[in-house]
Specification:
The structure is a single chain. This protein has 22 helices and 17 strands. It has 544 residues and is of the alpha/beta class. The chain has two domains: 206 residues, 3-Layer(aba) Sandwich (Rossmann fold), CATH 3.40.50; 228 residues, Rossmann fold, CATH 3.40.50. The strands form four sheets. It has a seven-stranded parallel sheet, with helices on both faces. Helix 18 crosses helix 21. The longest helix has 20 residues. It is globular. The relative contact order is 0.11.
Length: 544
């Protein structure tokens, strides 16, 4: 059986690499003659084996299949060549990990084609969203399809890259690429475009309309390195890759996929492959298996112990779990964390926060608040939260999340109701999609956008104040501490209260959404066919 080899650069941050791990498993289960070299920077490669084994146990419970798939996924640590120095303008920026790993990828690609290898030459290269490379250089070494790995959803891809008529950023990004030749000037232009102040309405498919300025609804000024990231991203999509892999599916975002197929497949002849949500679901339901609990570290087990105690003391659905992910926090308004903790403690509602979330915005009084909440038995923290186990615990009422795609997908897998606290990028689109409309499966916080919300009013409030399903008044947001506290009390304390009608309804809708996801994974479904088409294009056989 002729082996097919895919080189898959999973990205420089865990939020991109984790779904790449999961997708690699999916691909190798589908095709028995496929080998994947999963390329990761050394810091991620060092920790990738444990989650890989965990995902394998869920996706391939048959021992023989699991062993076979594991043998065909090679985790490869890539490092920049000796003597490399990161450009000074990126050395202290958010872009550095992506620049360093991009240089490492290009060096790896050259090396494996120049030196003897155990594996055959790659038949395909998959690159992360923020990969800096030259198409001609890659193709001159080995002229294989280059696919773009988009670990977010379809609607946000439309906002970034779709043509005129959607109100997104695509036409402006493309114009900048076509008209600005100086890289420094191009990166400055791309950075400004990424953080728009325009009130133009974006209609991206399945999400409700949003103003362009809501793309960075609570992020403050553009961060150093953002221009590099946008240049690499947009040039890859429009100029370099031969197709796109997107971690969603038509069962969830059909209109967005229709827009993308019309542009990229019909006009540009670049296929769009739907990888579906990159999460696992236990067949027994949204509960965390006891055998996996035993594998958690002592601090992680301490979090589960806190939830167990809360279940006894306060009952089911009593705990809220707050996480802003690894890259976001209310940096410009750190007092918002104080208001959150004060609200929870005053109302004796237990909660879980990660220490990474806390450390991101350390401000005077915050550590003391956490300590007092912990002493009162109302708060648990750890350096690493076992998120899947927390989301599936019976004590959990709702997940207070920034709304990144990975976290949203994990909540869907656990059927956990969400309270969105979005900051930027895909988060406002995801939050609006799932919290607005006649049958929301989540809540969205608006006062968290801070004082600038008075100037940049959310489209949701275009006709004035709202009324919640429970009959409560929802004022036009002002972003003040007083308004934020009132919103926290309405959403966190009353509407998401244990046993409340609103929480019950959202839970039921999340259970139904989880089942739709499970159904979408069946053999012969649209996502399954999309993956098969991608693999057979390079000669992979499909498992029968």
């Amino acid at each position: 059986m002729s082996i097919r080899h895919i080189a898959f650069f999973g990205g420089a941050v865990w939020g991109h690499a984790r779904p790449a791990l999961q997708f690699s498993i999916t691909l190798c289960i589908k095709s028995p003659n496929l080998v994947i070299s999963l390329l990761l920077p050394a810091n991620l490669a060092a920790v990738a084996n444990s989650p890989l084994e965990q995902f394998l146990s869920l996706e391939a419970p048959d021992v023989n299949v699991s062993k076979d798939v594991r043998a065909r996924i090679k985790i490869v640590a890539i490092t920049p060549p000796e003597g490399y120095e990161c450009p000074a303008e990126l050395a202290q920026s958010i872009a550095r990990p992506f620049k360093d790993s991009s240089v490492a990828l290009v060096a790896y690609w050259s090396r494996i084609h120049a030196e003897p290898q155990d594996l055959p030459r790659p038949s395909m290269l998959i690159v992360d969203i923020f990969t800096d490379y030259e198409r001609e250089q890659i193709k001159a070494i080995n002229d294989v399809p280059i696919l773009f790995w988009w670990s977010s959803n379809l609607n946000y891809f439309v906002f970034h890259f779709a043509p005129e008529g959607t109100g997104g950023l695509g036409p402006s990004f493309l114009k900048a690429l076509d008209t600005i030749s100086d890289i420094g000037e191009l990166e400055r232009a791309q950075a400004e475009l990424w953080s728009p102040t325009s009130d133009e309405i974006a209609r991206v498919g399945d999400a409700p309309p949003l103003h362009q300025y809501e793309h960075a609804c609570a992020c403050g000024p553009v961060l150093p390195g953002a221009g590099f990231l946008m240049r690499t991203c947009t040039s890859s999509v429009f100029k370099k890759v031969d197709g796109h892999i997107i971690c969603s599916g038509p069962w969830l975002e059909p209109k967005a996929l229709e827009i993308l197929k019309a542009q990229f497949e019909t006009t540009l002849k670049k296929p769009v492959y739907c990888a579906n949500l990159q999460i696992s679901t236990e067949k027994g339901g949204p509960n965390f298996p006891p055998e996996r609990l035993a594998l958690l570290s002592p601090p992680e087990q301490g979090i589960i112990g806190f939830l167990d105690d809360a279940l006894v003391k306060y009952g089911p659905e009593s705990v809220l779990y707050l996480s802003w992910g690894t890259n976001f926090a209310p940096f410009a308004t750190p007092w918002q964390a104080d208001v959150f903790i004060d609200t929870m403690v005053e109302n004796k509602r237990p909660f879980v926060m990660s220490q990474a979330t806390i450390a991101a915005i350390i401000s005077p009084g915050l550590e003391d608040r956490i300590w007092r909440a912990t002493q009162a038995g109302l708060c648990a923290t750890a350096s690493w939260i076992p998120q899947e186990a927390v989301l599936k615990h019976k004590a959990l009422g709702a997940f207070v999340t920034h709304g990144g795609w990975n976290s949203t997908c994990e909540a869907i897998g656990a059927a956990a109701p969400m309270i969105f606290w979005p900051f930027a990028v895909d988060q406002p689109f995801i939050a609006s999609s799932l919290s607005e409309g006649p049958e929301p499966i989540a809540w969205q916080l608006y006062e968290t956008r801070g004082p600038s919300v008075t100037e940049f009013r959310p489209y949701f409030f275009k006709d004035g104040p709202k009324t919640s399903a429970s009959g409560e008044h929802i004022p036009i947001p002002t972003g003040t501490p007083r308004a934020l506290k009132a919103e926290f009390e309405r959403v966190l304390i009353r509407e998401a209260a244990p046993g409340s009608f609103e929480l019950k309804e959202r839970k039921e809708r999340m259970v139904a959404l989880r089942q739709r996801f499970i159904d979408s994974k069946q053999a012969g479904g649209e996502c399954d066919q999309s993956i098969s088409t991608m693999l057979t294009s390079i000669g992979c056989r499909m498992r029968t």
